[in-house]
Write a structure and sequence with these properties.
Length: 307
């Protein structure tokens, strides 16, 4: 499964490796820190609960799961027209290239600039960010934004500049796949912080928890506002310890070391433990040429499991 939200740090490339390490007999699977929801959407479980503390992400995932594909696409097409944005899935690439004299490097940037910033300011002025109108606009913002990312400033305004892509065949296919998948599985989307009591209760009732927290030694976009510190890392470790004591199976992604930095709270926690297992993950394992880069960065990405 590829996520319709092209989430930085999403785990789609790692799913083949993860599946070998996840249990097979899961009733309730929790995708904690779900982001774009790639992991939970790709597993076999009777029920999947997606949890993230980013209300915009949860609202958007929920929103996109509510409609059938054709209805949603029709609304998106109306907006694309309203804002004068390119729509290469329908009209191809050449049309826009001719109109704006784009170079290949800039994709659709030139053509979409005016419309994109109007769309962004309209989204930012909508009061109810969980409304249907706001969520449609947010999905389109992600499609046309820089790196297809999602970033908000402290006042909650979407603040990414324009990117190079548009509503292309790939985005449409991902959206369709997502809608098909969520309609097939039993799933819940919950906005919450892992430290909240109601979230702990959900974890305690689950059969398996996969957690993909912001990396203490990472630099993704969501780290900019999430303030993930050594203290937060320790609070997560405390929660995992509690789950471990309650015999709840879990697996957690993280980076233990990378050039010039190491995750000390996590390394300390793992020291001398034979109930916790460290699986080394090869981030680029499908493309052999990347392995060299990975080694040069000396990054140790791991999956830690307690079963
Ligand atoms: C590494 S990303 C998850 C990527 C995701 N697994 C995917 O495949 O797209 C980490 C996520 O943790 C969320 N997050 C950060 N702090 C959190 C907290 N205290 N409680 C719950 N979620 C949090 C962020 O909003 C972000 O979506």
């Amino acid at each position: 499964m590829k996520t319709p939200l092209n989430y930085t740090g999403n785990k789609s490339r790692l799913m083949d490796q993860f599946k070998n390490h996840f249990p097979k007999d899961v009733n309730v699977f929790v995708d904690l820190f779900c982001g774009g929801a790639t992991v939970g959407l790709s597993v076999d479980a009777k029920k999947v609960i997606f949890i993230d503390n980013n209300i915009n992400v949860i609202n958007l995932l929920k929103h996109l799961s509510k409609y059938n594909f054709d209805t949603l696409l029709l609304r998106l097409e109306t907006l694309v027209e309203k804002y004068g944005l390119s729509y290469s899935a329908k009209h191809g690439y050449k049309k826009y290239k001719k109109l704006s004299g784009e170079t290949d490097n800039n994709g659709f940037k030139e053509y979409n600039t005016l419309g994109y910033y109007k769309l962004r300011s309209d989204y930012n002025s909508v009061k109810d960010k969980s409304s249907k109108e706001a969520c449609d606009l947010l999905y389109l913002l992600v499609v046309y934004a820089f790196n297809n990312d999602m970033r908000f400033n402290r006042s909650g305004e979407f603040n990414l500049p324009i990117g190079k892509t548009d509503l292309n065949k790939n985005n449409i296919e991902k959206l369709k796949q997502y809608i098909d998948r969520v309609k097939k599985i039993d799933c819940d989307f919950i906005c919450g912080d892992f430290r909240e009591e109601n979230i702990k209760k959900i974890l305690m009732d689950a059969d398996f928890i996969y957690a993909d927290p912001p990396y203490l030694i990472g630099n993704a976009v969501y780290n900019e506002t999430s303030n993930w510190t050594e203290q937060t890392e320790q609070e997560l470790i405390d929660l995992l310890e509690l789950l471990n004591k309650s015999k709840k199976r879990f697996a957690v992604s993280n980076v233990l070391d990378k050039v010039g930095a190491s995750n000390k709270p996590l390394s300390d926690w793992l020291f001398n433990r034979n109930d916790l297992h460290i699986v080394d993950i090869d981030y680029h394992y499908r493309g052999a040429s990347y392995n060299k880069i990975n080694r040069a960065a000396r990054e140790r990405e791991v999956l830690i499991k307690n079963f």
